[in-house]
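Fold it.
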Amino acid sequence: MVRALRHAVVVGAGIGGLTAAVALHRRGWRVTVCERAPGPSAAGAGIILAPNALRAFDAVGFDATSVAGHAVPAAMGLRRPGGDWLNRADTAAVAVRYGRPPLAVYRPALAARLTAALPEGTIRYGTPVTAVDDAHGSPVLHTPAGDLTADVVIAADGIHSVLRRQHFPAHPGLHYSGETAWRTVLPADGLPELAAAETWGRGERFGVVPLADGRIYVYATAVVPEGYKRADPRAELLRRFGTWHAPIPALLERIVPSAVLQHDLYDLAVALPCYHQGRLVWLGDAAHAMTPNLGQGGCQAIEDAVVLAHLLDGDDIPAALATYSQARHARTDAIRIRARRAGRIATLTHPVAVAARDLAIRATPARATQRALDDLFNGFTLPAATATPGRA
């Protein structure tokens, strides 16, 4: 018997939601994506796709290197504000150990490439989902444009997930990390070839990442009170980082204040008890918001999406969602906790603690540093689908 075309509604057109939509579309699902924003965002910054995310994309036949025509490794090193290196990753060694180096791309370009892999009209912009009812195993989504029905609803509605708050009302919500972050993308014209690096000071960090399209993704963080914001972000960044090592001052001079994104950094205060309820399932920041200290937020959303689509290849949707929740919960929550701990180390402010931290980083052998990434970069797997008779 031919199985009827099943319908998935994805709430949110971020990287995780779009990856889920592409993966399900390629498995024969009819997909609708409801996105609150009125259209694709022209603003954005970079995203580093670690080897685990690239392998997840491979599993659904999506070539991330096609986003900008050629791959640029984003192997990272750590520096001090004066310019000396605390450690440096060997790009060739990273590629050998994990099959490929990380890839740094412009986030809006990646989103556009994923969107292009979907049928026209899949994404409904300007369509916020205000609530989902699933009392009888047939989800109904409420939007200002009318109700939608689906076989499964994928909540990829981000760190401030409306659906998470609705369905987990007792959850404490988000935890402020103590840091705010500035991000932008700059032209590289006239600059020498730059190495990807993050520089750690006292409660402040500055990152430089060459992108695959030839531009430079820069970001900075600082320990400040929640809600801290200045009218001129360029002046604020120059005040904080203008005396740091080259090429940071030259990059700061290129900043256009209106193109700088600033966001306070949060993660979930505690883990959700599970990632599904009925036929509603959460992924990415909606499920396990984490700070960006390990560069795994977007990567874990991609993993979530690919694992979920793989499991939904079967007929029993409730069983597939339960298997997904079980398969993803421990890995993503462990990474959330690890990212929070890494942030505490990176944001030390006391001079003695900072000196001890830097000494410890410098003294750690490169092989030990690399081994610490094995569970992140080699941790993506596709779980066995639950064999179920009949159709859900």
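Residues 7-72+107-174+271-347+366-377 form a domain with the FAD/NAD(P)-binding domain fold (CATH 3.50.50.60).
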